[in-house]
Description:
Elements: H1 3-6, H2 11-24, H3 30-40, H4 51-62, E1 68-70, E2 73-75, E3 81-83, H5 84-90
Antiparallel strand pairs: 1-2, 2-3
Helix pairs in contact: 2-3
Amino acid sequence: MSSIQKYWNNVGGAIARVKEALQQDWCCNPTGLFINSCKKGVKPEKKVVSDDVNSWFDWARSRRIVLVMTDGYVYTLEGEAVKLEEMMRQYPMRE
Length: 95
């Protein structure tokens, strides 16, 4: 079973961690970092500033609208990068 299937809840954080590592230029093995981050549930060092944004992201991720959020962008399940503000307008949080 692949790491993605086995550790689905950790995939978003692992993708964000790899992206952050590549941007900071300290990762020479992105695949290994991804697998290890999935297994351990490691997330990127950057934190979401706003509680409203964090709540929206948790809501959208639980409904499989988005997979990961980093640097003002969210990534859909198809891998498309969309500005966070645009997605929040397209998918207002509903209880």
